[in-house]
Design goal:
about 375 residues; TIM Barrel; three-stranded mixed sheet; globular
């Protein structure tokens, strides 16, 4: 399915729909699932508390020969073990990608204990949309190190295999969600793109690879999002072909809007923003109403000709600014409640802008 075709599904999303970035602090699977399923677009919960294999990098790289991780989810690849297992692993990987039989690359119980229960809930609740996520290839290869201290992005052969592994796991997850009867909203989690540099040839190649991954997922019937919670080269991401660009509002919304040409092309293509509107930094002080007002003011001031706040606002997604795994359960619950408050505020602003929009807001 091409990007323009799948992108039409954005128009079917609930107005200012809430969803999550992915990680939650719960140690009990049932409670984590309950919180994740309560969002407008239910999200696959990553639950790394006490289970470092569920941190984003080890989860994405699960199965890679020589992979090791510590209690904080920081990964290293032992080069000797990698070389010993390389040929067999690459053979299995390429056979799966060629045949499309990718079930073996879905997350395991160790990598994501909520995966199978989440698929069951998606199917039996007959969910129209469901969100899942995986660490993206730029971040994975920038953060994971080899046993001699190099970024895996800089190790020929290993960097390509990691990209192919992320491709296989992403496709496997999207295919499984499609089999469960839903339209997947699949996010590539790319906080490492804060380090992206256009002057670095390896980075430019990695950006091209990211675009190829986006297209491959769209062809499998997924709406593809990209999340970056730091500032980056936003013009490159706006032009990357993603359906949804996810960002931390207080940190990055104005920076995104300043890329006026790229932002206009992004909106013209039918893509939308996912606004991380509720801060997840516990040191932050804020009023939710002020955050909502700031979003409205920023968008109205920067929207290109032909795009109204009423039109763009209905298709926005709303999330916490980042994952919640490092917060307490009480703090996570508070953030998710505030997300509902922000949703009500934006919906009221949209009604005030165009009263005829009131019916879709019924809940």
């Amino acid at each position: 399915m091409s990007a323009p075709n799948i992108r039409r599904a954005i128009q079917l999303l609930p107005t200012c729909a809430t969803t999550g970035i992915g990680s939650l602090p719960h140690t009990q699977l049932e409670l984590g699932l309950q919180a994740a399923l309560a969002l407008d677009i239910p999200v696959l919960p990553q639950l790394p508390a006490g289970r470092p294999s569920e941190f984003m990098i080890p989860q994405a790289l699960e199965g890679l020969p020589g992979l090791k991780w510590d209690d904080e989810g920081m990964c290293t690849v032992d080069l000797e073990a990698w070389e010993a297992g390389r040929v067999d692993f690459q053979g299995k990987l390429e056979a799966a990608l060629s045949s499309g039989a990718l079930e073996g690359f879905e997350p395991s119980l160790e990598g994501c204990r909520a995966w199978r229960p989440f698929l069951w809930e998606v199917e039996h609740r007959k969910l129209a949309f469901a969100k899942a996520q995986l660490a993206g290839p730029f971040t994975v290869r920038s953060v994971a190190r080899t046993s001699d201290g190099r970024a895996t992005l800089d190790v020929p052969g290993l960097d390509e295999t990691i990209f192919r592994l992320v491709l296989a796991r992403s496709l496997a997850m999207v295919k499984a969600l499609r089999r469960a009867g839903t339209t997947p909203l699949f996010f590539l989690d790319e906080p490492g793109l804060y380090a992206f540099e256009r002057a670095n040839p390896r980075h430019l190649l990695a950006m091209q690879e990211l675009r190829l991954l986006v297209v491959a997922l769209q062809r499998e019937g997924a709406l593809v999002g990209l999340h970056c919670c730091g500032n980056t080269d936003w013009a490159s991401l706006l032009d990357s072909g993603v359906d949804v660009l996810s960002l931390d509002v207080r940190l990055s919304l104005d920076a995104v809007l300043e890329e006026s040409g790229a932002f206009a092309r992004f909106l013209d293509s039918g893509a939308t923003l996912s606004l991380g509107i509720i801060p997840t930094d516990l040191a932050s002080t804020y009023e939710v109403e002020e955050l909502v007002d700031a979003v409205e003011v920023s968008l109205k001031a920067a929207l290109p000709p032909g795009h109204s706040f009423a039109q763009v606002g209905t298709q926005l997604l709303l999330t916490p600014a980042c994952g919640l795994a490092m917060r307490s359960v009480v703090d996570a619950e508070r953030v998710l409640e505030q997300l509902k408050v922000a949703q009500r505020g934006l919906r009221e602003a949209l009604v005030a802008e165009q009263p005829a929009l009131r019916p879709p807001f019924a809940s």
